[in-house]
Histone deacetylase complex subunit SAP30 Sin3 binding domain-containing protein (Prunus yedoensis var. nudiflora), 89 residues
Amino acid sequence: MCRTFSCDSQSKGSISTPRGSTKIDLGKLEMAALWRYWRHFNLVDAIPNPSKEELIDVVQRHFMSQPIDELQVIVGFVQAAKRLKTVCK
């Protein structure tokens, strides 16, 4: 991992990324996926019965407000890839 991040920065803990620079098009998701996200994060108080556009807006705002630890995401991705590789052998 020292190839991507300096060893010194890794030892200091998590690395957060400003999410404002990242744009995710949640409009590509099906309504079922948006509803699952809505229910999982208990966003029901926002709008009682939203249209798809309203649902996308609420989910997008919630998604972008979540802090992200890039190092943790990368490590989790690598671990998942290794598990998948083991299962597929």
Summary: Residues 23-66 form one domain. The helical segments are 7-11, 31-40, 52-65, 70-88.
